[in-house]
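hey can u run this one w/ CU-O-CU linkage bound, need the C-alpha cells asap thx
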Amino acid sequence: MKFDSISILNRRRFLKGAASLAGGAVLASSNPFTAMTAFAQDPPSGCPAPPTGGTHFVPGSDTRPVVLRKSISAFSGAELTTLQNAYAALRALPASDKRTWILQADMHALYCNQCDNLNLDIHGSWSFFPWHRGYLYYYERILGSLVGDINHFRLPYWDWENIRTLPSPYASPGNSGNSMWDNRRRPALAGGGNLPSTDGTAARITTLYGLTDFASFGGDAFSGGSIESDPHGTIHVDVGQASGAQLDMGNLGYAARDPLFFAHHCNIDKLWSGWNDLAGGGSAYKNPTDAGFLNQRWSFYDENQHVVSISAADMLNHRNNLRYVYKNPIFVVPIWIILECELICCLPGPDPGPWLKVSEQVRETVIQQARANSPVVLVLHGVSLPPGISGNFDVFATRGERSIHVGSIGMIAHGRDQKEQHARAHKPITLTFDITQAAPELFLRDKPATLHVFRRTEEQRPGIMTKGQKREELFQLKAEKAEIRVAKR
Ligand code: C2O
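ok here u go:
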C-alpha cells in the first residue's frame, strides 16, 4: 500500500470536515470542549473532547496468551511484514473510524497540555507511566485486530540503549511507501546518524535504577520523575525536527503521529517493568499505594471502536491483566545511602552559579566514594523550569577551565508555535545526575564547581567544553530539596 503525500493531505482535509461531525456524535453535551473542533486536524488547532466513560476494564477478562514484547531488532521478516501491514491498515481506515492513526495521535495531544488544560495533562506526574501503558495496550489491540491476530500481535520496542540509530524498519525505505516512516524527523538521525552519546544510554538506565523510590523514578502527584526528562524527553527531542515546532516526536501535540513513538514508549514501559522487577525490601522498587495513584482512570477506544476505561491499578500487573511480558536484564542493585545536601544559589566568584553545600563528613564520604569509582548520584527534587522552554539541555559542573557534563534535560515542545509555547507552564520535575566524575570538583572546600544548564545546539556536542566555546545559559538551577545517594560499599 502506498501513502503519497498528496493523498494524505487530501485525506486530512477530508478528515477535518468529516470528523467534526463524526466526533461530535461521541461528545457529551456537558463537555466544555464540545463547541470546538473534533479530533482530526492538521495541524491540531482546537481541543478535541476526550472519550469519556465507557465500559470498565475488568482485570482477568483479557484471556489471550501471554506474549513477549520484543526489540524491533529481534523481529523476524514475517513479524516485520505484519507490523508494516498493521500500520498500513491503520492509516487506511476511513475518517469516521475511532481507531484512525490521526485520531489516536490527537488523543495523545489532548492528554499533554496541548489544549491549555493542565488538569488533563498526564505528563509531569505519576500518571505518566500508567496512562501511556493503557494507551499502548489499546493501540496494540487495534493494530493486532487490523491484521487479524490480536492474540499474538505485540508492539516492538526501540531499545535505544542498544540501538543507537533509528531502527531501520522505521527509517527505510525513507518514503511514504513505508507505513512506519515519518517525514518529520531530525535530518541527521533520519540520514543514519547516531543519537547523541549522552542520551538514553545503558549507563543512564543504571543510574535511574539506583533510584529505589517511585517518586524520584516515576514522579508523584505534582511532579515528574527523573525518567521523564531523560531518557524519555531527550530521545523525543533527538528524533523530532531540530527547529521550529520540533515536529513530530519533539512536540507532544504531534509525537504519536510517528509510529516510532510507540516503539519509544514501549521501551519506557519496559524500563518501568524492569524497575519493578528489582528486588528491594519495604517500598523499594514498588509502585505507589496511594488511592490517588491507583484510582486514576482513563478512557480509550478499543479495537471495536467502543469506549472503554481502565484504571492505573488495573495495569500494574501487565503479565496477568494485559497479557504481555518483557525479558528484562538482571541488574544487581546496591544498597543506597542518602546523604544530606543543599543546592545553594548562588556562589559569587569566577563561575557564579548554584553549588552543593554539604557537611564535612558528607564531603569526605562522597570524595572517598568517587575516588573508588563507586557511583555518586545527585537527586534534585522540585526543580522548576521556565515556562515555554523546549529542547535538549546539558548540565555541566564548571570550575575555571574545566566543565564536566553531568546530565541532560529533555523538554518536549507543546503546541504549534512560539506563542503557544510561551504560555505553557511546566510542572516541577525531579532530576537525577550521576556526579561521580564531577564530585571531586563539586565538593572542593574552596571555590567548588558550580552547576550550569546550557541549551544544546547541533554544534555544541555534550562532553568537555572547548575553551572559548560560546553557549547559551538557560536558567539557574534551583531545587526544593537536594540529596546525594551513594552505594553502600
Ligand atoms: Cu506522552 Cu512520550 O509522551
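The first helix runs from residue 5 to 24. anyway lmk if its weird
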